[in-house]
## 1
Amino acid sequence: MTAMRRSNGFRTSLSLVLPFFVTHHRRLILGFLALFAVDLLQLQVPRIIRHVIDALAESRADHSFLLLFGLLILVLAALIALCRFCWRICIIEFSRMLEKQLRMRLFDHLLAMDRPFYSRWTTGSLMAHATNDLAAVQMACGMAMVAAADALFMATAVIWFMAAIDTRLTLIALLPMPVLAVATLILSRLMHRRFSLVQEQFGQLTEFARNCLVSISLIKGYNLEQEEEKGFARLGRQYVYNNIRVAMIQGLMHPAAALAGNASSLLVFYFGGRLVIEQTITLGALVAFFSYLAMLIWPMMAVGWVSNIWQRGLTSLARIQTLLDEQPLLTADSARAGEMSCPVPALRCENLFFTYPGSRIAALAGINLDLGPGMHGFTGRSGAGKSTLCRLMARLYPVEANTLFLCGHDIGRADPAAVRSQLSYVGQEPSLFSTSLYENILFGRPDATREEVEQAARLACIHDFIVQLDKGYATEVGERGIRLSGGQRQRIALARALLRDATILILDDALSGLDVATEKTIMDSIRNTWQGRLVLLITHRINLLALTDSITVMEDGAIVARGSHAEVAATSRLYGAMMEKQGHA
């Protein structure tokens, strides 16, 4: 049963690459024809040597005879080089094109996945799929495929040519072959299991290194360099140990093939020598037979090498297939997919419940809410459900139908892209790319003009800072914006959202790194430029909440108070405590 499931899994995995083989079958046919031409030309060389040796033994050769056959070998060598170049261009380029297609498919798939997917898969594991696994598949569909076809064709042709010299001697030479076949089968199964473990540990090692680099400031701040070094060394030792176990299998495959080849040579040396003594075959025929046997050793050794590469490739292909089998939880009603009209921005919740995947505690417990154009504030303790509501609005998680509506459209059935086209979202931790300030802002709307980018920067109160830099908007921000302060990163992210010029603006604690004066300036700018639209402001700062048209206080996933600043201050004990702590009582 296990073997049957593994077989079905391999067939499913192969379906990833088989269409590409069909599409490029002409290139492959040409490449393999060139490969087989190389083999056939190589097989002629021992025949030439046989004629030359027999002529020398019988004193029939002269200088012109040797020169003629020498030139013939040179011509064969030139043709072999030309055909070898042809098959390399055709087949190796094919494998690289296949790798490119798989990489693009994998990347497109990752872009289409939702938030729950990325909570299950680590970045290190995904990077291992996009690097090591793709390289293993490329090798299996390139050099390993060439080696397999070459070994099969060469072995068949060589045995045919050997049998033409002497059938009995050929059967004797092939006696070690079954032993090699059984050994290769056993070792290949071990290789599959061990290589799967190596690939998994490579993902863990990559993820550990990524976490350390991303959190390097925290690690240094807590003097944890030695502890992290020990953890990395522990993973490294495990990775090396399991690689050595893989190398042990590889190390057995090649010697097993070489042993079989040398055993064949010994048998031919003994029995072939007797045939020459008995004058059953000529000395030239025995030399040619040895040449063919030497050619047969490569296919015998290729069995182990090809099996190793194919096991790696199939394992990696299965891992990639597992990743591609993942489907986003977010789905859209096909009849409702496409553009979403939003003439009047509005948000409505009707008994909205939500629980994060893998959790038993409801993040939202029966939310009922109706908001129209204007600036609306949300506050409450950490974990009250404020950010969860924003994520559901942005269609980052699936939501039940008929519970959450945006501009009158049911978000639970709407196309995620159509929903997000109406939103500008700035989260608690701004995400910046390792590129220039200008390109980071332009990401909000790639077709925006320079003037529009600068205007968005002015609204976010970051333009004056940018123009004071030596390179201005061309200044590189570094990895995740490391060259900027927290407040500067927030304002760059805010400028990017304002440039998007969407119908609804969500600020999820996006101004926490700013001073009071800058906060006030930005809020006034947003109010003046976003009239008639919907702005959701999540914050704990009373001075910002006081500027909004309405305030919603949340606790334990539910709304506990709602109204104006004065109304909420009078009715909500939590809001009153917040005012007292911030000196607004």
## 2
Amino acid sequence: MWNRIRSWLRAMFQRSRLEREMDAELRFHVETYTEDLIRTGAPRPEAARRALIEFGGIQQAKEQCRDARGLELIDAFSQDLRYGLRMLCKSPGFTSVAVLSLALGIGANTAIFTLLDALLLRSLPVPSPQQLVRLSPSRPDGTVLFSFPMFREVEHGQRVFSGLIAWSPGSMVNVEVKGTLAQDNVQAVTGNYYSVLGVNPFLGRLITPQDAVPSGSSSQVAVLGYEFWQRIGAPSDLVGKQIRIEGQPFTVIGVNRRWFTGMSPGEPPEIIIPLTAEPLIHGNSNILQSIEDRSILWLDVAGRLKEHVTIAQAQAQLLSFWPGVLQATAPTQTPGNRLQRWLSMKLDVTSAVTGIAPDLRDQFTRPLYVLVGVVGLILLVACVNLASLMLARTVARSHEMSVRVALGAKPWTLARQVLIESLTLSFAGALLGLAFAYWGSNFLVRLMTRYYLAPVVFDLRPDLLIMSITASVAIVTGILFGLAPALRASRGDPVSILQQNSRSVAGGAGKLSKLLIVVQIALSFMLLLGAGLLVRTFQKLYSLDLGFDRGNLLEVTLSPRPSGYLNLDMNAYHRQLVERVSAIPGVHSVSFSDSHIPAQEGWRDVLSVLSEDPSAASGPMVNGTFVAPRFLQTLGIRLVHGRDFDWNDDDRHPPVAIVNRNLAERLFPKGQAIGQRVRFGVIPDFQSLEIVGVADNARVFDLRDPSAYVLYFPSLQHLKWAQWGNLFVRASAAPSVLSRAVMQEVESLGHEYILRTQSVAEVTSELLVTERATAALSALFGGLALLLACVGLYGLMSYTVTRRTNEIGIRTALGAQKRNILWMVLREAVEIVLLGIVFGIPCSLAVNRLIASMLFGVSPTDFPTILAVSLLLFTVALLAAYFPGRRASAIDPMVALRYE
């Protein structure tokens, strides 16, 4: 087939030599017709017709010639491609290193971008996602959710949406499937949720408005998430059967499609129930007794815009009746701070085309952007490394290319061949990189979310956008590392090159090769310094003095059994459990808290000193946590003033609180905190709290902030807010030894079961998962950059030694010692490394300011880290140059003098 195409192309190409004759003949006919027209003053039809006929024929022939030239380019490209593949196959070592380096660089970039795309950029997999908008009330302290009465008022008053939906953020509750009890993520949605989003089921059917029956109905339905359905064995006969959620029966009516995550990308609900059934699964708590409760803000709300309605128009229409919504749904009509704060809420209307996942995005966006910069530099290092290697190959082939030029090849032809060879390498690396990217992006998700109770799932399959980005990166990469060799191939003078020997030819490319290695070392220094700073940040955070003793401290996460808290005196139960666990041999102290210790943050709200002055300024934002008696003693937090909580601080006594020392100094600079009264937020239960103690500062929240304000509530006084929690056990032995004994005591009472047991040191490590992942990946990529820099330096030194073999032989024959030859090679490497470090330091200091907000305990200009990275790079680079230097020192002078 190729022979037939070439024969046809040859026949077409033969016409091109007639092109000038055709142009001349055409000009003759046109000039003849013009002269006749001027001489006679009137046009001659036969002359005009003859000129047009000739013109058309000549134009047709010229078009055929142009077509032949286009096919000639295709043939030339295919020849260059085959030639480039043959040349690469002749150098399997170089080709393998090049493809693997590019695969790692392109694959890392594709993996990070795939995850960023799935988390931030990709539209929801629903019809017309650009029509979806989110509605969110906002206060000065941040965005809040809707209550069900608020949602209903907005739904009745809006005129801009074809449908308005609401859903709960989801909660971990007891789910029993085929007799197996576990904690799973359950989300409640309005009856029109699926119809407004426009999605179809994988099995069965989805929730409809008819399923949103009043809570308390004996017939409730549920839809399973695809991933949850797969995890329980993918039983096809489960549709139509019952499962139990917090002991209540629910009939499975369908299964979602794969990758459907609702409005929250990355967080697929495992089980979806109608919104009206939400109170049924909260039978163990008093928080949500009815969806009509005005004081509980628990719903996310979104709507689908009608055709030709903009977000600005929707916001204008909603704001026109928003004050009336607040007035009609206020949890109190009593004048005061609570009503004022409620009525001052604003309404934000924003696009929801990419979904709503504030927790995931807040936690992972900044580290992912840092990794984007890191892997971008890795790819740039790989490009510079390959440019150096390709340049060396081009120089080695200078005589061959010069002979081809002397035989008639054009310089552009040689440059094109080099570029096609580099693009071939780049696309081969991109194809292998796609496989690395799919594995790498899934690994990143597992690494960053391994401590999440609910599974995090992203559709990380390469789509058209990812493929396009990868292809674009491959093209740009191939051009970047192929440009210098291509220019070198096209600009050489064949006569002078053919007259020179290999040493003089090599010398012509030496400066450019050294410059590329200097750039590579500078880039590697930037990556290593950034990685060093992030690693030191993680080490400092992990080894931080938290203000309490983490040693031999066990945290036991408890969960109520279905109906486990029904008609239970919680104060008596907690006291009984504490007494039983305290009786275990080796246990020193036991207490409760509603938070993990340490935690990212607690229940945040404004704390103010109780004052009769209405103009008194609001206090600071405070992290609140509910704790049982002896909590401070169990953790080892020193009580500075006042007293600790005891078992008498229950709901029959006036509300009390303990503040940490930073908060006491902020509110009461004169040191008179004990006996003062404060209010926390606007909820009535926390409007008159008497301070009975001041605890020493401890980093129970926000490890990075030593001045965080903490407020401790006695859990016995606030059963509505603190029925469940974590049991903390201080022991004399390792915490893992006590796990089984604590589990037996919890199970013997029959009201709760243990989800997991961890040492507080493990909880601290879990809290730092983002910092750990960022530091580990940065260190990994920094090591890869160091390896590439060493490979580049080793290649340059080896190439230099090979090209200077004759010179080394002369030096040896004249009396040079082996150590002199070795030092000659090492000195050149030292100069290159030092120059790279000198250029790398200021560039690193400028770039590392971008990650300054992620650092803790170190600055972007940290001298010990700069010194350590410099010594590491210098040592490894010397090691890479040592082996070529040792080979040079062992050259036989007689062999070297005959070498050329």
## 3
Amino acid sequence: MNTKNNASKKTKKKGVYYTLDGFLAGMLIAGVAIMLLQTSFYQPRTEHKTFASQDILNALGTLRLNEVNSSVVEQDYINGNITNLNKTVLEQIGEYWALNESSKAQSLFESVNNFNISKLKGMSVSIENDTIYSQGLNNTENVFSTMRMITGFSKGNPVSGFSSSAYLKKIQNKKTSTYAYFGGFIGQGNITEFMTLPSDFNSSRLVSSELTIETPGKFYLYINNMQCNGLFTGTGSSVDTWTLDVCSSEFQSGENNISLKFISTLNESYVAGGYLKTTYTTDNLLQSGSLNYKRYTFPSIDGLINIYDSISAQGLITDWFLNVSFDNIYGTYMTLGNETIFTAQGSNITQNILITRNSTVLAPTEIPLRMGITNITNVTIVTDGLPADSFLVTDVSGSMNDCAIYQNTTQEYCSYDFKFWFWWFSTSCPYTGTCLADECNTGSSSTRNHVVSNQTQQVCTDTKMDLAKQADKIFVDTVLNQSTQHKIGLDDFSSNANTPTNLTNQKEVLKSEIDTYTANGGTCSCCGLNRARDLLTENNTKNFLIFLSDGEPTAYCSGGLHDYSGTFESSPYTQSKNDAITSAQEACNNNITVYAIGFGDAMSQSGTDTMKQIACNTSLYYDASNVSELADIYKNISNDVLLSANYSSQTVNIQGNYSTTHLLFGSYMDLYYTPIISDEQNKIDIVMNSQQFACNGQIDIPAQTTVLDAHVAIFSGNDWTKTVFVNGNKVYNLSEYSENYSILGDPFRVTIPSAYLIPGQTNNISITQGSTPLNDSNCSMNNSLIYTLLINASTSRTGTNEKLEGCKWEIAYEDGTTSNVTIPSTYAGAKTCSYTPTLVSYDSTDSYDAAVYSLLKLLDYDNNKKILVNINNLDLEIITTTIGNVPYLWGPSIIKINLYN
């Protein structure tokens, strides 16, 4: 190949590569500009001169540095001042101008536009107000101008620079807290709770510790089986706080046992809410643990198992696992919300309950948890408890004879065709051994196509009446097996109320009467309700009415609230429904707790609405459209009756002897949930405790933080926390579980969904508490918000800065100390920077300093010019990136070409 004729040949001249093709193309563009200029003299139209100036700018913006022959560019490339020969001539002229090198800008312009324009009287090129090139006369009367914006340049400012971001690789001495909580009510007897401290904890890192609880008792405090201080004496209905600084050596990393060993009577040996708080320093960025798993640890109790508490998570609970062990010769039960999770008979050996619940959906709010004992009335006197009298009011109308449960059965059938007059028909009947003639007795003498085959049919195994009888018997056994102090009455109804079985504790009498129930007639709901209510109001015990029906009422009580005989009514049965609701609500007004159960899938919407209004509140209505659930519903109701009878307040006052019960160490409930907050990367967590408040609190949360977890700690004493609202949002409402508070747990900590708390503003919290839905009590003055903040430990990238040097920083910390930190650690200059309460100074044009300042400001979450954690040279990493020729960095600036005629 003849390389001399190679059109793509490249020639190297003093380190600069010039492409001959590119050079020729550049000359061609310049020639076009000359031609246009010359054409303008032959055709003296002003637009031609304007086009000429536009073409010159287009040529400058199109030509690349590697396509021109310029000694200025060549030398700057050799010296390293130019590293990118792919830039346009216009960009390089703008850069020379920004760097105050106008002579170089002029030289470059001349090298590109070095042609004969003698017929043009004058020409000038300027950027902003600075002239880059000028030739000939300037005639302001005949000037033709073209302008263009150029970006990325500003005179006196760098055209390239550095952008940085910073993050903490590790920290020192972060001050935070951990709590061991003593539920809404924990007791009664000796109590042990648990606290987990970080792996780098030791007694020298403990800043402070305190015990804040409400108790009327006297006790000794043990931390990891070592006695702390002397005798502690509670003051009953008020909250006491004791500092535990003398006990610092007893705390250890990992799990710590916090034990209260009471010397008071059992009736005073409890904690009505509170916590042990430890404040310490740690070098861990995060202590918050897993974002989708949480363990609730039951307290260890030696005495009388009696817990009012709650569970929660910052997200939707989807699965949970219960593992609880106890020694109890009496009955033991646990409820979650208004659901009974388990009941266990008394035993002389340790019992272990394991329950798994998958694919559930529990909202991200506090769920009351209750654990206690039953059947203690056999050996002791519970002065706050009363016997329970209950009436089972059961619908025995004709529709209760409908089938509730079918079972598929397979049987052999004889099938054939038979002739009737001129037509053939098909028939079949159970196979009895032959299938040759008219075995199905059609009366026909002509048959054909005989076949024996298996057929599946549905057979009714249980009617609704059968299931109702079974459920009534379950209720009888559950309640009367617990105590013979309780009594049960029966009242079945159809078109009127049938003869009742008066209150009795004789199980066989009750079961024998239940067996006599038969289904027929209409539905006079008010008749059954009136009869049961009148029989219950004659007693001074705790009264319950359990009403079961499979449809809406069809008869009303024309004689009023004491009428037991129904008067039939046509659809839509308006008076029948109204009378049923009136009769039930009259019972509620007479302190009778009315449960209502809608039974069977044939219930109309109108019937369901009526049943909901028959119950004292909607939490006492049960939908048994799945008839197989009826037995479980009666079990739950009977347990509610027993719990309510045993406990009318949270304290169980016992007189006489009792056997000690034990809730064993290691009992827990694991919660698996979908978290609300999912990003903890490059963040530091810190536990905060707000100022104390009563029923209403106002909490300021620092801006530029994220709330990871939050709880309102509420001292409700022997009452229940009823409602909690945050910024107008309902967070917790106990009555949604039941209006019979005695069967429900009582949280000490009410979870606040993190999205409800807004950093950077005042957050309003309101609380109500009491012993019933209608009774409000005064709030403690010791309530507070305990919350975990996430603080960013990394910055976004800074703007572009001209310097990348570093500084010697003086930094103040929250622990009261200051230190001198060189960032980066390789910096050896004399420049100093400061982030302290007395001085904040840094070089904003230095990319290192700008990134460090941004990070320190993030770590100063309360804006007191002291950062949260201590750092040294090696803790902080700065990532830098050199940025050059970024179009949006500066500008825009205006370049103008003037042609004079």
